[in-house]
Specification:
Blueprint: H1 4-9, H2 20-53, H3 77-87, E1 91-95, E2 101-105, H4 108-115, H5 130-133, H6 142-152, H7 158-161, H8 164-184, H9 191-208, H10 221-238, H11 245-250, H12 252-280, H13 282-291, H14 296-302, H15 313-344, H16 346-360, H17 368-371, H18 375-387, E3 393-397, E4 402-403, E5 409-410, E6 415-419, H19 437-443
Parallel strand pairs: 2-6
Antiparallel strand pairs: 1-2, 3-6, 4-5
The structure holds protoporphyrin IX containing FE (HEM).
Protoporphyrin IX containing FE (HEM) binds at residues 121, 137-138, 149, 322-323, 326-327, 330-331, 334, 390-391, 394.
Length: 447
């Protein structure tokens, strides 16, 4: 006979004939097994990583944080990695926590071996931008990368690039006019935002024939979204807990990112749709092409391989978003650091000014043919890029094990990043000096 107590404890759904306690028991066993399997998997991964990187000298690492706790201070990351690069002059592992590490290559001899192989881009560095820029040239690899690359190459023909010069000159004038007004206020100005808006304005005009007026109209929601996305991508990279998708997705920054992505995609889709519509009509197409230069978007929409296959709508959008990001963020960073170098070294600034004035003569705007004559200015740009590379490293995931010239190997599947800066390969004390001597030979001119 069932006691009153037992009847009272019976769950309400016992009439279903299901033993709820048994279900809980099974769920607990299942959960624990999953946790145990994950722990074993993580342990094995850690052992694999320790073994893989044991052949390379390493900065002391914490068992849990790896090197992360040493790289938290904003603005210090690159300096610290630079110091370690000098201490370990070929390559050293960088640990992000206990279960993730990559080989940080610091010597050109090592970098040459890596880049001679054509391994795919690693899926860690660019992972955070994919929800925005999709799978365009920057993240693709293998046959699809090759197909896109071949289809887009005509977009970089001189005849396509030449008409971009006056458009970039116009955008630059807008920026300089703004600075003229700001100078009058006699306050310091953060240049990077101004330069970013100028490069964004340029890429939109050149590649997509889109007059955004973003330098003067900051209310434009698309510009705001692209600007927010660029900031949020950099921000996420710096905050290590945000590297986890779930943590980021649930965070206020993750919410902001998703919202900005939606806005940006909506805009890109509209631009592509409108252009497609206008190209449908033969007469309209002829009219449009006569009126303006063939831009990057036209090339994307007309691209066909030897089998007559073009890019899908998704691929077109990925390339548009990729170029929108890559085409303004890197150049903004490069130009801002160049201006910094010119401010630090007024003697070089003066030489550049004289050179450009001489090339311009009576004109007040740069033309395509002028670019090749700017020998001194080009050397300054190269030196600034060497000291402050806008893309500080290039990462690859190894498709097969790699052996360097000194016999050290790194197994398949591991990540290797080659640093863009070569300061540590220079003589001590010379690495941070802004000097043009290293380019004079190639420029064929003594300064
Ligand atoms: C100072 C300016 C720039 C720097 C320092 C820079 C740097 C780089 C680097 C290092 C890569 C190789 C990435 C990798 O292999 O993992 C790359 C790739 C790429 N960049 Fe730039 N870039 C600059 C300007 C631009 C501009 C203006 C555009 C577009 C208009 C652009 C579009 C791309 C694209 C599409 C890729 C992928 C290429 C491929 O894999 O085929 N970049 N860039």
């Amino acid at each position: 006979m069932t006691s009153v107590l037992e009847t009272g404890l019976k769950p309400a759904w016992s009439w279903l004939g299901v033993d709820i306690y048994r279900i809980f028991h099974l769920a607990a066993v299942f959960g624990l097994t999953c946790v145990l399997l994950k722990v074993i998997q993580l342990y094995q991964r850690r052992q694999e990583l320790i073994k893989a990187f044991s052949r390379f000298p390493s900065h002391p690492t914490h068992w849990l944080y790896g090197h992360v706790h040493e790289l938290l201070q904003e603005g210090e990351v690159l300096n610290k990695v630079e110091r370690w690069s000098q201490k370990y002059p070929y390559a050293f592992p960088l640990w992000f926590g206990s279960f993730s590490a990559f080989l940080n290559i610091t010597h050109p001899d090592y970098a040459k071996v890596l880049f001679a192989r054509g391994d795919p881009k690693d899926n860690v560095t660019y992972r955070h931008i994919v929800p925005w820029i999709g799978k365009g040239l920057l993240v693709l690899h293998g046959p699809k990368w090759y197909q896109h690359r071949k289809l887009l190459t005509p977009g970089f023909h001189y005849d396509v690039l030449k008409p971009y010069v006056p458009l970039i000159a116009d955008s630059t004038k807008v920026m300089l006019d703004k600075w003229e007004q700001l100078i009058a206020q006699e306050k310091s100005v953060e240049l990077f935002e101004h330069v970013s808006l100028m490069t964004l304005d340029s890429i939109m005009k050149c590649a997509f024939s889109y007059q955004s007026n973003c330098q003067t109209d900051r209310e434009n929601s698309y510009i705001q979204a692209v600007f927010d996305l660029s900031y949020l991508v950099h921000h996420r990279l710096r905050i290590f807990p945000y590297h986890n998708d779930l943590v980021y997705w649930l965070s206020p920054h993750g919410f902001q990112f998703r919202k900005a992505c939606q806005l940006a995609h909506h805009h890109t889709d509209t631009v592509i749709r409108e252009r497609k519509e206008s190209l449908k009509d033969e007469r309209e197409r002829e009219k449009v092409q006569k009126k303006r230069h063939l831009d990057f978007l036209d090339i994307l929409l007309h691209a066909k391989d030897e089998n007559g296959a073009g890019l899908s709508d998704e691929d077109v959008r990925a390339e548009v978003d990729t170029f929108m990001f890559e085409g303004h963020d890197t150049t903004a960073s490069g130009i801002s650091w160049l201006l910094y170098c010119m401010a630090l070294y007024p003697e070089h600034q003066q030489r550049c000014r004289e050179e450009i004035k001489e090339i311009l003569g009576d004109r007040n705007t740069i033309q395509w043919d002028d670019l090749g004559k700017m020998t001194y200015s080009s050397m300054c740009i190269k030196e600034s890029l060497r000291l402050y590379p806008p893309v500080p490293g290039v990462s690859r995931q190894l498709s097969k094990s790699i052996t360097f010239h000194d016999g050290r190997t790194l197994p398949e599947e591991e990540h290797a990043t080659s640093r863009a800066s070569s300061k540590h390969t220079m003589r001590k004390g010379e690495e941070n000096i802004f000097t043009l001597q290293r380019y004079e030979m190639t420029a064929g001119k003594k300064t």
